Give the backbone structure.
Amino acid sequence: MAKLERAEAWDLLSAWTKGEGLLRHGLAVEAVMRRAAHRHGRGAQDEEAWGVAGLLHDADCEAWPDEHPRRIVAWLEERGEADIAHAVSAHYTKWGVAHESALDKALLACDELTGFVGACCHVRPGGIANLEPKSVLKRFDDPRFAAKVERDEVRAGARLLGVELVDHVGFVVEALRPHGERLGLLGRPT
């Protein structure tokens, strides 16, 4: 599926994105999408493409916020990555692009939730190390917490994947846990 190598994807993300938060978000969604390839896709066969989709889905957000995701979609299409380009287009729900493939559905389901889980980690002394799905869902119902997170997209993504929200939250937490230190998810100091 993916012809685009991760190193080239990282170089592009690093060139277009200078903010540490958005770089970490790309890395976090990449980690979750690599794991999602094994749960919702064809495993190792999909892992690279799904990881690249997670890494690059917001690559043009910082440099060209008014054009997001047009630039990254065009860049992917120029490289023959139609499946990834479609998933990135579909993750931007304002365009109304249908979620057709498992990749499309997984990116929608994982993107916003990954950011939300990260926000939960930042307010807990233990961060990702002892984060439980019930703690995430308790905050999920508070619209003031991480107010920019599109909760309807998270719910829609879980529905499209055919999974219960609590199970999907647990999946995302477990996918992020091994990367906690690198992604800055170890929580706030006590």
In short: The longest helix spans residues 20-40. The mean pLDDT is 95. The chain has one domain: 6-179. The chain has nine helices and no strands.
